[in-house]
Amino acid sequence: MAAAATNVNIKPLNGAEGYLRWKESMLLRLHTVGVAHVLSDDPPPPAGVEEEDGDAAARRRMWARDDAVCRGHILAALSDRIFPDYVRHRTARDAWDAVARTYDNADAASAVAQRMLYDDLALDGAPLLERIARAEALNAATRVTLSLSDAELLCQTVLPANAVAAIRSGAATMRDVWRVVRIMEAQRIRREDEALHGKCRKCGRSRYHGCNCMR
Fold first, then answer.
1. Whole domain around residue 8: which residue ranges?
2. Per-residue pLDDT reduced to its tens digit, 28-51
3. Hey, which end of the chain has fewer CB within 10 Å, N or C?
4. Average pLDDT across the chain, whole number
5. Is the residue at 58 inside a domain?
6. How far is it, in rounded angstroms, from Cα 117 to Cα 92?
7. Does the pLDDT at position 106 exceed 50?
């Protein structure tokens, strides 16, 4: 398992746009090889003046080893362009936090998410429900709550005008967006069924779902 994780090809981080995927891939690798704890746990206390037991010394040696391995993995996953900016940090936590200060912030992530949302989301050809799920995930990744104007802009990007009007009539939330989108998808599926299989003139149901009118 550990060997498989370390063999996973992680694209070197080269800027904000690839940071979210890089971060999750790195955490998976660091947890799998058993060194991620140095990013959050406190290191063992330094050796005292008096002689100490062998266990305390062993813990310090293990921590130093894990910290060096973790730092090495982090630095190895940085592109040549940004590597010199972080190699000066002597511990894994310092290097990890320095990268996070640069890329893991609401403003930087929001800029990337906005570009992905409004430039690509309406044009990528994905099903409507998948586009909404992607938009919701991107917004959650930025840790910035959608304002009413943001929600309206999102809706205008991926939804028809009549759906935008329905959401705009009240305080828009992602739950409202999902409710309207599910209704729209149900209507789309019904129209496709009717176009393919025809519609019963008596009950109005799609013949694909069957009815008792002709039986």
1. 2-47+54-103
2. 999 999 999 999 999 998 876 455
3. C
4. 73
5. yes
6. 33
7. no
